[in-house]
Amino acid sequence: NITKVSYFSFISLSLSPLKMSSNIIVESCSVDSEEGVKLHTRIFKPRNEEVSSDDGDLVIVLVHPFSLLGGCQALLKGIASELASKGFKAVTFDTRGAGKSTGRATLTGFAEVKDVVAVCRWLCENVGAHRILLVGSSAGAPIAGSAVEQVEQVVGYVSLGYPFGLMASILFGRHHKAILSSPTPKLFVMGTQDGFTSVNQLKKKLKSAVGRTETHLIEGVSHFQMEGPEYDSQVTDIIRNFISSL
Predict the structure, then answer these.
(1) Which residue, 106, 172, 211, 231, could crosslink 111 as a Cys pair with Cβ 3.0–4.6 Å?
(2) What is the CATH number of domain 25-244?
(3) What letters, b where the CB count within 10 A reaches 16 and e where it falls short, cover 207-232?
(4) pTM above 0.85?
(5) Where do the structural domains in the chain lie, given as residue ranges?
């Protein structure tokens, strides 16, 4: 089971330091989405600007798993922290109804697409995000995928365990077309024992994908294993390699 965890209970209307480690800074802010929703957002960045990556204008926005099953931004803290320690700016946020964000979560995730777009636009206006990489985990993958063509600054998309399987498609099937028809470079990362999507289902779906589309299979790993901290470093390296190829 996924457990909703609140690591911090602090939201501010402007950027303010939230937590510091030896080599990264985490700041908290509140981003306005549609319908008056306020999204609790965290920005992870290198403490020392001199160690920042060459992709200084690139921001990586991570979209968490299904909020109705307890998914929240805390599940992506490990990946975001590792990306920041490697010199990237990474952003996590609670979609509507999750964690400290206001509003109500939806069953199919279409309202949450508006939240992804709102965070991306806020980053462009306030953090100088000239290029954005969208990364979606589990149910966050179809939600992020539907936002790709709505934000012109998005230069790439990474899916971590996209739920293409039959049962999951009952909820998220209407999101498939948006990412599969997008010319934006795409990378689909999945464990070979995913449980929600088989390797054959993934390959069959991606046959209809437009533009550059890649896969990275992690042998013997299940859907929820890949979401765990044990694989944060490996997933971070996969994301970094994809960025270097853009």
Answers:
(1) 106
(2) 3.40.50.1820
(3) eebeeebeebebeebbbbbbbeeebb
(4) yes
(5) 25-244
